[in-house]
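Justification of resources, computational component.

The compute hours requested in this renewal are based largely on the per-chain cost of generating structure records like the one below. Each record pairs the submitted sequence with a full structure-token output. That output is archived, and it is also reused by downstream analysis tasks.
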Amino acid sequence: MPNQLRDAVSPYLRSHADNPVEWRAWGPGPFAEAVERDVPVMVSIGYSTCHWCHVMARESFSDPEVAAQLSAGFVSVKVDREEHPDVDSSYLAAASAFTEGLGWPLTVFVTPEGRPFYAGTYFPPVPVQGRPSFRQVLDAVTDAWTTRRTEVDATASAVQEALAAGPASVTGTAPPGPGAGVALPGRPELAHAVARLAAHEDREHGGFGGAPKFPTAPAQLALLALGAGGDDGALELVSRTLTRMAASSLRDPVEGGFFRYAVRRNWSEPHYERMLYDNAQLLLAYSRLAVLDAGQDATTAPAGPAAPAATGTAPTSATQEIDTLPARVAAGVADFLSSRLRTADGAFGSAQDSESTIDGVRDEGGYYRRDAAGRAALDPPPVDDKVLTGWNGLAIAALAEAGARHVRPEWVGTARGAADLLLARHVTDDGRLLRASVGSTVSDAVATLEDHGLFASGLLALSLATGEARYAVAARSFVDACLLDDDDDPRIVAAPSGGDPVLVSQGVALSSDPSEGAYPSGRSAVAAAALTLHQLTGEARYRSVAERLVAEVAGSALDNPLAYGAAFGLLVELEAPLMQLVVVEPSPSARADGADDGLARRARGLVRPGSVVAVLDEEALVAFELAGFELFAGRSAPGRVPTAYLCRDFVCRLPVTTGDDLDGLLLGG
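The structure output for this chain reads:
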């Protein structure tokens, strides 16, 4: 049968449409074909901006002889890990039984019934330093399948049983029940975790550990939260890291934005793909650092990255001074998101590739090593314009919060445009959330917990930045859809559409996946959104869900906050005193002469763990109250002047009407 990827939704799959390999897209069909032919399934998992995925495609999947071998002995399935994260996480878990060096491309050999029995990552076209060639691997798998089927079945059964064991096999901790009284770590335990991080700091170059070096944005956000809560050591640690990252080759000083990781300890030799999830979280990090870094006024409107001198090559810290002012770095990241990753219809693509064509040759990083003038003559690396609900939620949250803080209404408007598009295109008529689309074509991939939680948090941030209750109402519906009615169900939350239907039918779907990486896990994402909903509604059930979800990984987060950065950040938020600040503004036409304009500015500049801030007019206030958000009940702007209400755990101080009075309340603890 011919290659079937030409009409795929995923740009990554379509890039393989001209391979001689008879690729199939993920679904039940390839497994039915394998049953009929009695051959194993070869599942190759990658993504558009994966360098070694491109390499293996050129070396092996474009080779007619390799294609013929695959056609004769296998059914070949190509998967975009970003479109089908459940498939990726289940097969990564399976692959851990066969190889320690997990990554992409991920190559998994599966029985026709869907049980993995062997896996690896990149395989070269010829043997290299003890690593077998891809054709040798195919020969070995074929030999095992035809002559040692009993051994293959035994291995596959063992892997299937391990996958079915669930999250306890990952964390070693069973989630507490709703009435169990969750005990979460306090300040001493959090401080100990910071000390563990500090012990791994690279004091010469910044960051943690050696090479390769990643931005680890969730951990940076957690450290910023601790710093905002009074931990000076945590603030100094994160400030050093972010400042050195901003001055390094990991940051693009021309177009803004950060690359995915650096090969060298000094942040040099970056892998040049620019990911949506990294840059969205780093926008938040630098925006918050701009407030916490002494002497900066976050409410000024910073320009984007300064144009470098026309030297032909992009500037680096070794060639000229690079502006590392956090507010300017944040502006550069926001400009990158808005100008490079934003799709024609207003959402955000997943990433920009590291490779482009220069003088007819594929070149990794050549575009990015040029300055603005040098880039002007080149076609930029392509953007994977696949719109993912969860990752767009990260960008919406970052642009909304940073835009409000830095008085950049165009950033908030960009966030609003993406949210409106997703609410129209990624939500069905019956309210079910969808995961991915390209243009007007929607993928059949099911929405995950990640999608529900990250999109909900994005909508909540947007509602607070715009004063529009409809976004908060939508966010609440997505979180509520994930909450399980059965208090005895150890999962606590689950994606409403269930797991991937193929994996579920084969019995190899992970019951839940608490592991984290460069962005929050689905469980951490839902916990964060639920915690914000508690702050806005006063409903204890939301905080209970957040506490129970975080409790199951608390030990792992304290032991390894780099690997569980989002969960570690949630522990910080849950430990901090709950503080709510609402500033009510009269409509411009009703505003009294001489009213203090400092309240909104001070409120939007507030960065403190455990807090939620809203600035809205009286009409918007009514909409929130009618929608059941208790925090806004009974608030007003008497005397036609802006009025601030500072509350702690829903117990409010007397309202104030001047910025100085608000500062006094905030300084009072």
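The chain has a mean pLDDT of 90. The first strand starts at residue 23 and ends at 25.
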